[in-house]
């Protein structure tokens, strides 16, 4: 018998009132993988994380963590998580909070090593109320690691960190992956996914739009975007190499895989007032992935 | 001791306001009000009656303030995200809830004991040893009504509103429930209003015990009913309000 996957999500659907946040999402993550959930703000990443942890009840679908339900997995200490809006209690010391959480798990990360791994050296005696944003973030990471859980779920773990803190954090996460932990982290930084993950899952509008190795997904998103002012009736979708078109008022943004060919065609077709060409941001890339209407995720599904 | 209970008690212990408002203030009130009103009584019997009544009122005031203060704070833990963080540790949710109830109940005790000591040794209230024990015991048990109310308020209100509610609610319950001056001094409609406060029945229970009898049935039933309603509502709110926060 094979062991169940670290995370098995089937048909997950999350609604807030009339808003559909997660739309029938399927995702299976075997033990030992380091996976980046990549997507713009509002793509549904946090909803997925919250549903996996049992913090919200999905409208449909199921979540399995090492073959258990979310509630059972959390109770059994199978999962450690760093939430985007997780918090620390006031009027407490860091060491007390860490001790409380460590003792609640069946297994415990050795304290000396945990302090070094999470980078909270010298903070244990500190009052929680006196921590900086980056320090809080590292303490929350320490809480996620405290029970040495097999599955780690980190929702935008580096959002409050400066560049230096972010790099140190990536090193930590790579170390965790090397130690055999399954690490799933949500991010909207492509470079972060690239630096840490061995698999990237791009989420947009609550669905998986790309799933593959970092190299595979990056190849998809290294296009360029061309912005200019255009009349609303100007036809752009059929131009060479265009993968997506977005309009904001009079400004048009065209995603392209070959800026040269697209620009030539645009010039032949008329003027290009307020022209701007840049490398695609993740938002643009995700836009192009959606608007080209991928019904099947690109890349190898593993 | 349960690690979460020890942790929560340590946190509250760092709060100096708690000590002032729920222990020191009721103790000082006990002395002042007894001196002022009791001093106006012509005879010793009148003074004794006032001294005992004021002491019971202030025991009730301190205990309900402590119970409310300790439990409404759950709103701060929700706002900071700590409740959510706890929820994703193996600590069972029922234990988180039970510990908050226990903390509220434990914190009500010092006010009861300190005010009783002040009543006995400063104001000279004379009760039998057994009566003292029953008085503290009955008021301690009754404080669960305010633990339930505090949890209900703390779970329902946002952080700022909850912070304000700690002081306002305690003051209103004390004033309307006849803890600062006897209900008999109220105009008629206000006396009726007092019947709709749990604090009135809470103090009535204590007064019965201080008078040397068992608490009458009505106060016990009324306070139990308040407790049941508060607890049921608190559980409903806890189940209804999600702990997740989403922005991406």
UniProtKB/TrEMBL annotation, chain A:
Keyword tags: Antibiotic resistance, ATP-binding, Nucleotide-binding, Transport
GO MF annotations in UniProt: ATP binding; ATP hydrolysis activity
PANTHER family on file: ABC TRANSPORTER ATP-BINDING PROTEIN
Annotated GO biological process: response to antibiotic
SMART domains, A to Z: AAA
GO cellular component: plasma membrane
Organism listed in the record: Blastococcus haudaquaticus
tRNA-binding as UniProt keyword: no
The protein's name: ABC-2 type transport system ATP-binding protein
From TrEMBL, chain B:
Compartment(s): Membrane
Keyword Cell division carried by entry: no
InterPro entries to which the protein is assigned, alphabetical: ABC2_TM, ABC2_TM_bact-type, ABC_2_transport, Nod_factor_ABC_transporter
UniProt main location, coarse: membrane
GO cellular component: ATP-binding cassette (ABC) transporter complex
Domain of life: Bacteria
UniProt KW Electron transport keyword: no
A GO biological process held by the record: response to antibiotic
Keyword vocabulary terms for this entry: Antibiotic resistance, Membrane, Transmembrane, Transmembrane helix
Topology of this chain in the membrane: Multi-pass membrane protein
Record-annotated ABC transmembrane type-2 domain positions: 17-241
GO MF annotations in UniProt: ABC-type transporter activity
Residues annotated as transmembrane: 18-38, 50-76, 97-119, 131-155, 162-183, 216-238
Protein's name in the database: ABC-2 type transport system permease protein
Organism the protein comes from: Blastococcus haudaquaticus
Lineage: Bacteria, Bacillati, Actinomycetota, Actinomycetes, Geodermatophilales
């Amino acid at each position: 018998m094979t062991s169940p996957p670290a995370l098995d999500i089937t048909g997950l659907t999350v609604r807030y009132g009339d808003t559909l946040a997660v739309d029938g999402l399927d995702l299976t993550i075997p033990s030992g993988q380091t996976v980046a959930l990549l997507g713009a703000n509002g793509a549904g990443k946090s909803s997925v994380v919250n549903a996996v942890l049992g913090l919200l009840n999905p409208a449909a679908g199921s979540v399995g963590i090492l073959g258990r339900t979310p509630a059972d997995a959390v109770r059994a200490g199978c999962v450690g998580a760093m939430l985007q809006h997780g918090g620390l209690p006031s009027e407490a010391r860091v060491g007390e909070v860490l001790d409380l959480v460590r003792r609640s798990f069946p297994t415990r990360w050795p304290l000396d090593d945990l302090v070094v791994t999470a980078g909270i050296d010298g903070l244990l005696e500190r009052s929680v109320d006196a921590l900086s944003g980056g320090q809080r973030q590292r303490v929350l990471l320490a809480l996620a690691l405290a029970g040495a859980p097999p599955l780690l779920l980190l929702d935008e773990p580096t959002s409050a960190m400066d560049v230096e803190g972010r790099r140190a954090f990536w090193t930590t996460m790579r170390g965790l992956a090397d130690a055999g932990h399954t690490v799933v982290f949500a991010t909207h930084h492509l470079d972060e996914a690239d630096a840490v993950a061995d698999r990237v899952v791009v989420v947009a509008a609550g669905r998986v739009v790309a799933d593959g190795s970092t190299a595979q997904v990056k190849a998809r998103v290294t296009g360029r975007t061309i912005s200019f002012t255009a009349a609303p009736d100007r036809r752009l979708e059929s131009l060479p190499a265009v993968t997506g078109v977005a309009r904001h008022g009079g400004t048009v943004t065209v995603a392209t895989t070959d800026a040269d060919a697209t620009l030539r065609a645009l010039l032949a077709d008329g003027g290009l007032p307020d022209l701007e060409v840049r490398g695609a941001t993740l938002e643009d890339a995700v836009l192009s992935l959606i608007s080209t209407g991928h019904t099947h995720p690109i890349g190898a599904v593993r | 001791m349960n690690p979460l209970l020890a942790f929560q008690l340590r946190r509250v212990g760092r709060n100096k306001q708690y000590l002032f408002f729920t222990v020191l203030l009721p103790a000082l009130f006990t002395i002042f009000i007894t001196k002022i009103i009791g001093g106006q009584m012509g005879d010793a019997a009148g003074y004794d009656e006032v001294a005992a009544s004021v002491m019971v009122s202030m025991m009730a005031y301190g205990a309900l303030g402590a119970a409310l203060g300790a439990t409404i704070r759950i709103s701060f833990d929700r706002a900071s995200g700590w409740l959510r963080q706890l929820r994703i540790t193996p600590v069972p949710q029922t234990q988180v809830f039970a510990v908050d109830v226990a903390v509220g109940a434990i914190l009500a005790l010092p006010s009861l004991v300190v005010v009783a000591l002040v009543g006995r040794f400063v104001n000279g209230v004379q009760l039998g040893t057994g009566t003292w024990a029953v008085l503290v015991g009955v008021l301690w048990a009754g404080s669960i009504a305010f633990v339930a109310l505090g949890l209900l308020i703390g779970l329902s209100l946002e952080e700022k509103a909850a912070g304000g509610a700690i002081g306002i609610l305690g003051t209103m319950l004390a004033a309307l429930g006849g803890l600062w001056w006897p209900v008999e001094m109220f105009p008629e409609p206000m006396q009726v209003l007092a019947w709709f406060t749990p604090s009135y029945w809470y103090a009535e229970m204590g007064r019965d015990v201080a008078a040397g009898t068992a608490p009458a049935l009505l106060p016990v039933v009324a306070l139990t009913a308040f407790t049941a309603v508060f607890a049921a509502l608190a559980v409903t709110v806890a189940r209804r309000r999600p702990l997740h926060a989403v922005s991406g």
